């Protein structure tokens, strides 16, 4: 347990120390210090992996707080899922840290960058070892907050500010679902503890404590949380915009941290999902994978192509969870982390080189636009090789790790649909088509970036690349990651996914291997069709001779404009929300506030009238009587002189007055 605490807290220690120490103490040593901390975190994670993997889980907890008679515990849960994620996150983070030391060296906010990066790693690693849903939710939010900081790292850029706001808001939608799901389970079981919730003597869905309707609602709520975090349709649009952050951040977010958190959540609460919810998960994942792959076909921004590739691959993992291919989904999560991180780090080197050319020649170009590239294999040979390896793994080419994990999903998808209606058959068919589309768009990227001559010659006929030595802090992490993109790390058998140690670590107790026709046909079909697909990519984007996919056509425009989903959100959802907000504001201002103000004004008038009545009528009458009595008293007091003669005279006058009065009357 000490190893787990060390693995999680070392990045947090790096964050705290970098935050507290003054600039003069470390003098740009924050990067090195954070890297050393994440290195030791990786070592602790690997030791923990060796101790726990395929063995009895370790679970320790302490009393957190108490609500009446309900006691809430918090602790660490170390099982196969946890100890897989710890070295995966820390290993990818180590590569990104080393890379970032060079990539961010000249950035004025170098120190702040490594603070955020360390905090991000801490939040993700704490999430994966949390043993209860409430603690998971707390670190889930911290992961979202850290990503918000990193996506908007260059906050002086308007696009970066808009991107991190978009990511933050769309993830809050999913987080609401996650929180509601937690509350539903707590209301029925009075606990947040994962072991208590999911280790009932009977199956969770038939335990009798949760009705079928509430189980479906809870499952959909948890899936909504995963949908936002793992950028699944319809909450996927934040991820391509998140490319406004540093490329090294994109590598970490897309590989093993934020977007992986959604798939991790599905795995953690998997017993909640009944067949109805799993079918929804399957459909959403499959559609997302296909949609994102079609969008990636026509994009020209290097990082956005990779972003839509991530969305598509996450769709594979989500669909795999839906069809019950739990082990294959997590297997692909691990392999994807390595080759996608490698692709993004390669993209960073490419963009860095194009930015250097742009500044040197004072060109007005976008360094991320692949239309300005070409021939870069001559100046970036190591990047070219590592990018090829990562791309082959993404395609699922034999002898790569991606071949094993992706074929596992494809084969199990066909097995899942076997014997069912045609609509069920569409799931594996679309997953298969998506695999071919993946080969198309990544091949197009490779051809545009590395093959041929530089397209800058169209602007400057005399332009030539000047070979320069690639920075070792760039190439070392990339070479490190490329090793994990090949099959030997996961399995000595390069062709059968069932032999991979990672796959076997997540097998259900009742799993049995099925050697049927799909195990032969699917890998063969994928690889046979991949060859002409790659050729089509070459023909379309080098020779420009594919007639059925013109840039003026509907399909091309649909793909290039992201299926118009962003426009739909902007023109209808966002405007509707703004319009509704304005109407509510107007209603509040003129009706609610107007009514309150009217009541206040009427009350003020009544109080003023009451004040006048009190002052001039009530108080006036009382004062009038008092004053008159006072006057009478003053008048009567004038007769009290103490002189007998005056008294006699007064009596005489008074008697005469009465006599005259009687005579007159």
Automatic annotation (TrEMBL):
An example Gene Ontology biological process: ATP synthesis coupled electron transport
Residues of the NADH:quinone oxidoreductase/Mrp antiporter transmembrane domain: 130-418
Stretches that traverse the bilayer: 32-50, 62-78, 84-101, 113-129, 135-155, 176-198, 210-228, 249-267, 279-298, 305-327, 333-351, 379-402, 422-447, 473-497, 517-538, 585-606, 644-664
Membrane disposition: Multi-pass membrane protein
Subcellular location: Endomembrane system; Membrane
Keywords: Membrane, Transmembrane, Transmembrane helix
Residues of the NADH-Ubiquinone oxidoreductase (complex I) chain 5 N-terminal domain: 64-114
Protein name: NADH-quinone oxidoreductase subunit L
Species of origin: Mucilaginibacter arboris
Gene it is expressed from: nuoL
